[in-house]
Amino acid sequence: MVTTAIRRGSGCGWHRGRWKSCGYRMTDLSRILLATDLDGTFFGAGGTLLERNLRAVDDFKAAGGRFTVATGRIHRDILRVIPGAATLFNAPAILANGACLYDFFAERILSEQRMEPALVRAVVRSVGQYARAHGEEVGVRVSAAEGIFPDPESRNPYIRKDMQSAACSGAALTVSPDGEQMEKLHLYKIVVRGEADAIARVRPLVEAEFGTALTYTSSHPRFFEMNAAGCDKGHGLRRLADWYRGMFGYEPVTVAAGNYENDLSMLRAADIAGCPSDAQELVKPTCRFILCPFQEGSIADLIGRLRAMPA
Fold this sequence. Notes:
The chain has helices at residues 38-42, 51-62, 75-81, 85-88, 117-134, 157-167, 196-210, 233-248, 264-269, 298-308, and strands at residues 13-15, 18-20, 32-36, 66-69, 93-95, 100-103, 108-112, 138-144, 147-150, 187-194, 214-217, 223-228, 253-257, 272-276, 289-291. The protein is an alpha/beta fold. The chain has two domains: 13-113 and 232-308, Rossmann fold (3-Layer(aba) Sandwich); 117-228, Hypothetical Protein, Haloacid Dehalogenase-like Hydrolase, Chain: A, domain 2 (2-Layer Sandwich). 48% of the residues are buried.
């Protein structure tokens, strides 16, 4: 039986193939803190909000559970795809792959882990030089609290598509990697976009050049993502658990759901982890629950399984 790691001090969870009781039935969800990835996990096909998931989340929150998201997106982009984020989430969101904890109800950043402007400029410059020298169709954009910023020299069609989507939230701005404006930004994440084979060629070169200065991950074969060293969704989940302890005075049972490489650290950090059955294969061994396919409502499936767990 696959087990899920128990965070130190939690007092409950899956341990050596058996559920270690927290002293209450899992039908009481008041200590559950559930964080889910969006694309390929909570969203349905085409980035749609599934009614089955929404009903299950409403019931989960009514029973005292805390629900939020852990995503690579920034808060501006969340509001574009989930206009009612302030009412849907009753816990702070983990954004930009763990770089930011954001309270949608209060409309404020609670904590953040920024990237150094000089390092961001160096990565943008290096990828751009490589792309031009080798004729690779890859482009770069940078996510910050203030918006999404493309490399102005990029002609990559994926970057153009991303920026057209971002423009809907008023976040499409352009900044030169050498411009003074970058020094003023809350820089969270660098994203390299391109076809999967081009990304597969670029990623090892960037990792070799910048080493431990960055955290590297991916949320799709056509995405290669970088954050500050030590920053990932697992780090974000631990910071969110700290928020919970400070707010309520007791230890939460952390539950995480995700489907891809950039979710792996969060799934490992959670007390209970789940993934859709169509998740990336490397994710599945970490998860206690293999859920229904994401387009059928995997988060509703997860909440149902939490309710059915023994004391």
